[in-house]
Each structure stands twice: as C-alpha cells, then as structure tokens.
Amino acid sequence: MQAECLSPEEKQELLALAREAIELAVTGHELPALDLTRLSPQLVEYGVCFVTLTMDGGALRGCIGGLEAIQPLAQDVCEHAAAAALEDYRFARVRPDEVPLLRIEISRLSRPAPVEYFDPLALPGLLRPFIDGVVLRDGPRRATFLPQVWEKISDPRSFLSYLCEKMGGPPDLWQHKILTVEVYQVEEFHE
C-alpha cells in the first residue's frame, strides 16, 4: 500500500476536485490547470486511481482509471473523473442533469506487484479475495478488476474467468497458460 494514507481532508479535497471536473466536462468545458501549490504533498505526489460513478440507486454509471502513476494524484483524479463521465464505452455520456444524482468513489491504487507462479491451476489460491485488485496480461491485451469486484464475484476461479473475458480472451485462458499477473490494493473512499 502507499506509504501513508490520505487524511479525511485530502479525501474530501479529491472528491471535490472530481465533482468539479465532472461538472466542467459534461458541460463541454476544458479542465483548468490545477494549482499544485495549494495542495498537500500527498496530493501532488505521483499517484494513480480509478474513479467510479454510480447513480443514487447504486447502478454503475462509469468507471475509468489507470495502473501507472504518471502524474500528480490530484491531476489523475480530475482526468479520470471526467473520463468516467464521458468516455466509458459501456455507457452514454453523463448529461448535465444527471450530475447531481451521481455518487463518486475514488480508489487510490498501490503499486502493482508481480505474482510468480508455475502452475496455472494454482493461480486462484495465490489471490486474496476482497483485498487484491488483479491485473492480467496476455501479450498486448490487459485487464483489471478492482478489489471491490470481489463483492460481486467472490470465487477466485470465476473472478479469473470474467477477467479473461474482459481482457478479450476465452474465460478458461488462465487455466491453460501462464499469464502475467499483478496484484495491488486500494485506498477507497466516496461521497
């Protein structure tokens, strides 16, 4: 996990930045450059996140994120919040009238760690349900599930099968081939 957890104030700041980014994006405005000098060192440090949008009733409305820390965490949150509202291919773009109904969840990712294994059938036993997010790679294809997905798919074998399908492969690919596997944890918070 990260060296230090975010404070309640830092979490609120990121949620406010995410909401502002969504409001600007859905009304066709560019995201302004962040004034990094007014943010805490934790928010300026390079970090990576996923932003998940749900409607009041809990229905998923968008989820976009990254796996590599390539910019300040606050900037990453803003960009992924706007992308979750406009670019998740599974959903129509969020409309301005939907913004007040959205609930924002931010998952700050730790650095992924490789999982070493030599027997594909041993892979499910190496995963920690409800703790590990998982990245599967097979050549140029890649997919991930956040740890929160365990709440819907709690069986490790099924978890891996759905993740293979998300990656564009057959569901049993993980049973027949050594894939590149990484795990990470998240610090999750929401409005």
Structure description:
There is one protein chain. The chain is α+β, with helices and mostly antiparallel strands and 191 residues long. The chain has 2 domains: 8-109, 2-Layer Sandwich (Glycoprotein, Type 4 Pilin), CATH 3.30.700; 113-185, 2-Layer Sandwich (Dna Ligase, domain 1), CATH 3.30.1490. The chain has 6 helices and 8 strands. The strands form 2 sheets. Strands 2-1-3-8 form a 4-stranded antiparallel β-sheet, covered by helices on one side. Strands 4-7-5-6 form a 4-stranded antiparallel β-sheet, covered by helices on one side. Strand 5 (133-138) and strand 6 (141-145) form a beta hairpin. Helix 1 (8-26) crosses helix 3. The protein starts with 7 loop residues before the first helix and ends with a strand. The model has no long low-confidence stretch (mean pLDDT 95).
Q: What keywords describe this structure?
A:
globular, 8 strands, 191 residues, 2 domains, four-stranded antiparallel sheet, 30% helix, Dna Ligase, domain 1, alpha+beta, Glycoprotein, Type 4 Pilin
Sheet/helix structural class: alpha+beta
Range of strand content: 15-25%
Instruction: Estimate percent helicity.
Output: 25-40%
Mean pLDDT: 95
Q: How many separate domains make up the residues?
A: 2
Q: How many strands in all?
A: 8
Annotated CATH topology of the largest domain:
Glycoprotein, Type 4 Pilin
Indicate the overall shape. globular
CATH C-level category of the largest domain: Alpha Beta
What's the tally of helices? 6
Assembly state (oligomeric):
single chain
Poorly predicted runs of 5 or more residues: none
Radius of gyration: 17 Å
How far apart, in Å, are the first and last alpha carbons?
22 Å
- Describe the main β-sheet briefly: 4 strands, antiparallel
**What is the second-level CATH architecture of the largest domain?**
2-Layer Sandwich
CATH superfamily of the largest domain: Hypothetical protein ph0010, domain 1
Order of H and E elements: HHEEHEEHEEHHEE
Strand order of the largest sheet: 2-1-3-8
